[in-house]
Amino acid sequence: MTNAEKLALQKHACRIRIGVIESTHSAKCGHPGGSLSIAEVLSFLYFREMRVDPAHPDWPERDRLVLSKGHAAPALYAALAERGFFPTEELLTLRQMGSRLQGHPNMNTVPGVDMSTGSLGQGISAACGMALGAKVKGLDDVRVYAIVGDGEIEEGECWEAFMFASHYKLDNLCVFLDLNHLQIDGSIEQVMNSAPQDKKLEAFGFKVLSIDGHDYDQIEAAVEAFHAEKGRPTFIILNTTKGKGVSYMENAVDWHGKAPGDADYATAMDELKAALAQLEKEEG
Amino acid sequence: MAEVKKIATRDSYGATLRELAAEHPELVVLDADLSAATRTSMFQAVAPERFFDCGIAEANMIGVAAGLSTMGLTPFVSSFAMFAAARAYEQILNSIAYPHLNVKIGASHGGISVGEDGASHQCCEDFALMRSLPGMTVICPSDDIEARAAVRAAYEMEGPVYLRFGRLAVPVFHDPDHYTFTIGKGEKVTEGNDIAIIATGLEVNEARIAAEHLAAQGIGARVLNIHTIKPLDEDLILDAARDCRMVITCEEHSVIGGLGEAVCSLLSEKMPVPVRRIGVQDRFACSAPAWDLIHAFGLDAATIEKTAHEMLGY
């Protein structure tokens, strides 16, 4: 990846973060913390990796993304808008009556959303079904990505799905774990410790990689390893910071499911706009 | 009475899936380690590349089916009613019903006629659970002929369908040459204007037997076969209530939330008439041979006949 390419992705991630802050501020509710932690992986997937076509969101041979941690919908919506699936201005309708942008993703209302999610543990099963379906239909180029949360994997269904993915050798399935260490009631280590995630997933039969989830070079290398892997699914642990990019939200459990008020909104926007300006300056 | 052929509707299910395998390459079948009992093994035998055992993990199986359907395939997922409708209820709600995906849930071992396995395996709550889901079609066929037609109709329609099949071999009373099945359209099994008996599943044949006995006593019982619990055939039921002025509902299900309450909801709003609900009376059943349970829990023809007498003031 060239520096220019990386800068372009960083700008996309920054605009996704701005979309998260603007939409949750407008809605006066929503989940900014776990949305901000996945801005890099979403920008990488939608602007470098996935074969999708905003003009034809239902293209059968597209790659799929299932946001199993569906409460991070603000990030998914911002990424889809940034990619051109719908107008960015629509982000301000998040969670309002009549909006397509439901509190959790609805595949039937939002172009580009591949699966309705929100009830934790269920999206990963659907992603397994998509990967299996691609094999049944002989769609060899189709790759399926899923993003699960570190709190989410406390759901037993996730482990049923991991067992299934391995059993059916779904090497077209890549699962990202957003390991930001925080869930609603506290740190995952305090609430219900799912560690060691890497050893558990290896034991379940996955190819496992653990990377800095905010580093594009590492994300790219891990996804390339997924491409090369045959006969088993891939699990990429994204070591991330919840609330990444907004100083007062970083590693703060309070910002899991709370929208910024006007003053906090102004601070967040100042920070993100400054970051964007800095990237543009570096770009020259 | 001449010897009547008996077939369990789960056998009809497996046999029809086996037929559909050759006709529809988009059909895929999933099971949760019960393929021998649900009879999806009959599909597996002819189309192993489109059969996926999900192991004893029903929640994931439902989600996998949802994902398969988004890829343009038509999944039938099977387990016992207890583990499909009840255990995986919230997965069916959020991963199938809410996105309105084209997944068919073929649940065998519905009701108390499961028999000896006992209450832990006798699902008498599945109609209630599945009826409550927006957009879900709920079907409970009464015999082999109807079950075969129902499976085909479910395949042909777009959208989620819950099909309930039984473990117990039950009499085949439909004439395959003169039977047509339409989802949402009930069947008038007997004519009569004295009392309406509205039944589903294996209770339809019990109602037929009761109606024969009542006819011999000069009582005209109109038996309706409501194979589609949802959407309910309101016109057929309202006509029967209007003509007969009293109604008995019969189902191998709790009296809470099933056909009886669906009929009561309809009639209380549009045609209030006295109704008696025959079903499992808000209790768990127990281990016993199926017919012993059907008699003991008051789901047999004799109970229907007795209830008709009570309502008619005999």
Task: Map the helices and strands.
The complex is a heterodimer of chains A (284) and B (314).
Chain A: H1 3-27, H2 33-36, H3 39-49, E1 64-67, H4 73-83, H5 123-136, E2 144-149, H6 156-167, E3 173-179, E4 182-183, E5 186-187, H7 188-191, H8 197-203, E6 207-212, H9 216-228, E7 234-239, H10 262-283
Parallel strand pairs in A: 1-2, 2-3, 3-7, 6-7
Antiparallel strand pairs in A: 4-5
Helix pairs in contact in A: 1-3, 1-4, 1-10, 3-4, 5-6
Chain B: E1 6-7, H1 9-23, E2 27-31, H2 35-38, H3 41-46, E3 51-53, H4 58-70, E4 74-80, H5 81-87, H6 89-97, E5 104-108, H7 126-131, E6 137-139, H8 144-156, E7 161-164, E8 170-171, E9 187-188, E10 195-199, H9 203-216, E11 221-225, E12 228-230, H10 234-244, E13 247-254, H11 259-270, E14 275-280, H12 290-296, H13 301-312
Parallel strand pairs in B: 2-3, 2-4, 4-5, 5-7, 6-7, 10-11, 10-13, 13-14
Antiparallel strand pairs in B: 1-8, 6-12, 9-11
Helix pairs in contact in B: 1-8, 4-6, 9-13, 10-11
Task: Output the strand order for the largest sheet of chain A.
Answer: 1-2-3-7-6
Largest sheet of chain B: 7 strands, mixed
Question: How much is the average pLDDT of chain A?
Answer: 97
Describe the global form of chain A.
globular
Please count the beta strands of chain B (DSSP E, at least 2 residues each).
Answer: 14
Number of helices of chain B: 13
Structural class of chain B: alpha/beta
Pattern of helices and strands of chain B? EHEHHEHEHHEHEHEEEEHEEHEHEHH
Shape of chain B: globular
Instruction: Describe the sheet with the most strands of chain A.
Output: 5 strands, parallel
Strand order of the largest sheet of chain B: 3-2-4-5-7-6-12
Q: How would you explain this protein's 3D organization?
A:
The complex is a heterodimer of chains A (284) and B (314). Chain A has 284 residues and is α/β, with parallel strands linked by helices. Chain A has a single domain (3-283), classed as 3-Layer(aba) Sandwich (Rossmann fold), CATH 3.40.50. Helices cover 43% and strands 12% of the residues of chain A. Chain A is built from ten helices and seven strands. Chain A has helices at residues 3-27, 33-36, 39-49, 73-83, 123-136, 156-167, 188-191, 197-203, 216-228, 262-283; strands at residues 64-67, 144-149, 173-179, 182-183, 186-187, 207-212, 234-239. In chain A, strands 1-2-3-7-6 form a five-stranded parallel β-sheet, with helices on both faces. A two-stranded antiparallel ribbon of chain A has the order 4-5. In chain A, strand 2, helix 6 (156-167) and strand 3 (173-179) form a beta-alpha-beta unit. In chain A, helix 1 (3-27) packs across helix 4, helix 3 (39-49) runs parallel beside helix 4 (73-83) and helix 5 packs parallel to helix 6 (156-167). Chain B is of the alpha/beta class and 314 residues long. Helix content of chain B is 41%, strand content 19%. In chain B, the strands form three sheets. Chain B has a seven-stranded mixed β-sheet, sandwiched between helices. A five-stranded mixed β-sheet of chain B has the order 9-11-10-13-14, sandwiched between helices. In chain B, helix 11 (259-270) links the parallel strand 13 (247-254) and strand 14. The two termini of chain B are 27 Å apart. Chain A binds chain B through residues 60, 64, 66, 106-108, 114-116, 118-119, 121-134, 136-137, 139, 156-157, 160-161, 163-164, 167-168, and chain B through 28, 49-50, 52, 54-55, 57, 59-73, 75, 90-91, 94-95, 98-100.
